[in-house]
Write a structure and sequence with these properties.
Immunoglobulin-like; six-stranded mixed β-sheet; five-stranded mixed β-sheet; mainly beta
Length: 574
């Protein structure tokens, strides 16, 4: 019986090897042989292609013996004794089983991909297991896809590039990953992990995973406590932010539209929620009544272009008194005008309510009949007394006042308004009044102006004149009395002489005035005469009118009431 030429069987744990055995019957009798083997180490097993062999004389038979080793078998040299025997005969072959050290490893991880961003490093973990029968040093390397090279966008750092492992032992290795530049493909970048044995560089194991850039996302949950207030008052509540993105992110929480004093920066891992942030917003003093809103905004630091907003509605309550909705005022508190002219000023109307209003203006006063009054909005050429004002808005009207009378008068005017707010009407009045003085035509003087700046009014002039006459009369009486005492005789003679002269004078008849007959002028339909108080009565509308100053009949002018042409003719005396 013969086997390998060197008498050795070489194998490794976890492997199997076949050995050819030749058996020749050199005797003179036929043999029935049975195979057996002795000396196998633990973890080794031997099988034969033919356990029983029938050999006739001179016949050769070839048998294959297979030796297999389990992976945990110990290395070493083991003598084997292979025997084919029968009851009458036995033949053995001695061989040496050489079990070499085995080399093997496995690499595995529970994750096939990992999301990475710029905020902080993320850790990818994998494990290396020594499947060999001897201690081994394994080298770890990373392999990047040439098309989507992860190193272009991410920094990757291995915790170690080599590890020493005893047989059947395992060690974890980590890779720190952080995004360096944004712009990596959203599908991710492939990275390979290759682990090679130092005992046998032909033995290696590899796995792959993807580095995926994080997707920023957040959810804002607003919990309002008090969502109704007047302008200048505050509304309040709480807000919570949840990171619904794929990786750790840093967020900035603020509000827009209202000053709520909320500006928070915080970092959240994927799926985590922030602490509860309290907010309090003061409603703008000029806010209009009704529904309004404020906006909570969250901005991602990892993705600066990502912004999410949540709108919170609240109610601005009414903030006005029924008698203090409008502020109406005259620009001037007094005006003066000629009786034949007019004047103007402006009226300011301001909405003090926190809601839109509309309405109409009215000029009121006991003396409005003295004037023609026209209201025109500033920057408009069309007369109108209507206004529409937003919250806090003001409007100006020009008020043109023309006199209807020709004598001196005074008047006190004010403004009232009907203002509609929220579909309900309310009255309003102006804060001040307008005093108007009308200067009539010049009249004859009521007094006397003397030299040296001495001026006497009408009463003083009359008193002075009466006193002068009384003094003159008394003086004449006194002079006559004195003259009579001294010349009584002369006076008598004079009286007698005067009597004779009167008798001798012929009677003269008074000269008769020559009478002239004047024909009365008949008034036409557009003619009228002046009244004793220098006024005329319009023949069309019968309005009593003042005439232009200094006008002497006959003359023409237009009636300010009906715009008809009137001819004033001369008064006739009979």
């Amino acid at each position: 019986m013969s086997g390998p030429l060197d008498g050795r069987i070489s194998t490794k744990p976890g492997e199997s090897v076949d050995v050819q055995l030749s058996i020749i019957n050199t005797g003179t009798m036929d043999l029935d042989l049975t195979a057996s083997v002795a000396g196998l180490p633990t973890g080794a097993d031997a099988t034969f292609s033919s356990t029983e062999v029938d050999l006739d004389t001179g016949i050769t038979s070839t048998v294959t013996m297979s030796v297999s080793m389990i992976s945990t078998a110990q290395s070493g040299s083991y003598p084997l004794n292979i025997t084919y025997s029968s009851v009458e005969f036995s033949q053995s072959l001695s061989l040496e089983l050489q079990v070499a050290d085995s080399v093997g490893l496995t690499v595995n991880s529970i994750n096939n991909n990992i999301a990475a961003g710029p905020i902080s490093e993320v850790i990818y973990t994998f494990e290396v297991t020594n499947l060999g029968s001897a201690s081994d040093t394994f080298f770890v390397a990373l392999d990047f896809d040439e098309n989507n090279n992860a190193s272009s966008w991410f920094d990757t750092t291995l915790s170690t590039s080599s590890i020493n492992l005893d047989p059947s032992s395992t060690q974890a290795v980590t890779i720190s990953i952080r995004e360096r530049v944004a712009g990596a493909p959203t599908s991710g970048c492939d990275v390979g992990i290759i682990v090679t044995s130092s005992n046998d560089d032909t033995v290696s194991s590899a796995i792959g995973f993807k580095i995926i850039p994080i997707q920023a996302s957040a959810q804002i949950t607003v919990l309002s406590g008090d969502d109704s207030a007047k302008p200048g008052e505050a509304i309040s509540g709480d807000v919570v932010v949840t990171n619904t993105g794929t990786g750790e992110d840093q967020f900035l929480l603020t509000t827009i539209g209202e000053d709520c004093g909320l500006s928070e920066i915080f970092t959240l891992s994927a799926g985590a929620s922030s602490q509860v942030f309290s907010w309090s917003c003061t409603i703008d003093s000029g806010a209009s009544a009704g529904s309004s809103s404020l906006t909570f905004r969250v901005t991602s630091n990892a993705r600066s272009n990502y912004v999410v907003e949540e709108v919170e509605s609240f109610t601005v309550e009414e903030n006005w008194d029924n008698d203090d909705i409008l502020e109406i005022s005259f620009k001037d508190e007094s005006l003066s005008m000629a009786s034949s002219g007019g004047s103007s000023t402006t009226i300011t109307v301001k909405n003090k309510a926190n809601a839109p209003v509309n309405g109409n203006l009215f000029i009121i006063g006991n003396d409005t009949s003295l004037f023609d009054i026209i209201l025109t909005p500033v920057n408009s050429e069309t007369p109108s007394d209507e206004f529409t004002l937003a919250n806090g808005q003001s409007a100006e009207f020009e008020i043109l006042i023309n006199s209807r009378v020709s004598e001196s008068e005074s008047a006190l005017l004010s403004i009232s308004a009907t203002v509609v707010i929220g579909g309900v009407g309310y009255p309003a009045e102006s804060n001040n009044e307008l005093v108007i003085m009308i200067d009539g035509p010049e009249l004859p003087p009521n007094g006397v102006e003397l030299p040296f700046g001495v001026v006497l009014d009408e009463q003083q002039s009359i008193s002075a004149m009466v006193g002068g006459w009384v003094f003159a009369i008394l003086l004449l009486v006194l002079m006559n009395f004195l003259r009579k005492r001294r010349k009584i005789a002369s006076v008598k003679a004079t009286i007698e002489e005067a009597g004779e002269q009167e008798e001798s004078k012929p009677d003269k008849k008074p000269k008769k005035k020559e009478e002239k007959t004047i024909k009365a002028h008949k008034l036409q339909s557009n003619e009228c005469r002046m009244t004793p108080d220098n006024k005329v009565i319009c023949p069309f509308c019968e309005a009593k009118l003042g005439v232009p100053r200094g006008s002497i009949p006959p003359f023409k002018f237009s009636c300010p009431q009906c715009d008809k042409k009137i001819r004033v003719v001369e008064n006739q005396k009979f």
